[in-house]
Write a structure and sequence with these properties.
Blueprint (H helix, E strand, L loop, with lengths): L22 H12 L4 H5 L4 E9 L5 E8 L5 H11 L14 E9 L4 H8 L2 E6 L14 E6 L4
Antiparallel strand pairs: 1-2, 1-3, 4-5
């Protein structure tokens, strides 16, 4: 006799794991708003994924944060700092206290230098020429105005 487990797979989950309040979107938003790109990483043009493992206890507190794979230049420490700021919802498991090990990766990406450099380099040159024809030897030089426009 076969067991039909495809009817309701969630019913088989006896223990509930802690969840981040607001779900995945709120989780990603929290990381985006709280992450600070380290100055050393910017200077060394370091970017990539930092893989973090941490434990969430039964009341939603973060414990035992460690880097599984890092990129250095302060990014690993920043990932640990942000993960420690998080607070999960408590998991109610009929009085059973449990800890859940979570893994995540945080993407450190430098701003797209091609777009920024091309936009920052836009310059408009404006020249003003005196339209009066004056043959005086004290003629004023042309005025030249340079404007730099930064987009974004």
């Amino acid at each position: 006799m076969k067991h039909n487990e495809s009817r309701n797979p969630k019913k088989n989950n006896f223990m509930r794991i802690p969840t981040y309040p607001g779900g995945k979107e709120a989780y990603l938003k929290f990381i985006r708003e709280n992450i600070v790109y380290p100055e050393s990483a910017i200077l060394n043009k370091a970017e990539g994924f930092v893989h973090v493992q941490y434990t969430v206890d039964n009341i939603g507190q973060i414990e035992d944060v460690e880097i599984l794979k890092g990129i250095g230049h302060g990014c690993d420490e920043e990932a640990i700092r942000v993960i420690r700021l998080m607070k999960y919802e408590a998991a109610r498991n009929r009085g059973v206290k449990m800890k859940v090990q979570m893994k995540t990766r945080i993407h450190f990406k430098l701003p797209d230098s091609d777009i920024n450099s091309s936009q920052a380099g836009i310059q408009l040159n404006y020249s003003s020429v005196n339209s009066k024809k004056n043959n005086s030897p004290e003629q004023k030089p042309q005025a030249v105005y340079n404007y730099t426009i930064n987009l974004g």
